[in-house]
Amino acid sequence: MEAALAEAQTDLITLELQADIAEQLEAGHEVAYSALATQEGFAVGRVAGGEDEVEGGYLIADDSGISTSQFVATEDGFAVLSVDETEDDVLVQGAFGTFEEEDEGDEDEE
Length: 110
Hints:
Elements: H1 2-26, E1 30-37, E2 41-49, E3 53-62, E4 65-74, E5 77-85, E6 90-98
Antiparallel strand pairs: 1-2, 2-3, 3-4, 4-5, 5-6
């Protein structure tokens, strides 16, 4: 039963990756994945983007807890969300902003 469940999960992950890659390519974007597993824990990450948008995230899990972050940036601005969970606490942080071009004529004249 455990082997069948593990195989089904692997198949599901493979299908999700294929769908994500196809979606990104159709949008004219590139996508990259990373994964690392050790005896202490594991980490996975993903970055995708093109000329109009860059987005990605990561998840790290080990004996101390789970840390995850997601971000998106466009020419208009950016947003970042991170969650760090330990046995004792959950910390959620976010940030967002816009990109404003500085006008050359706005400099103070002395």
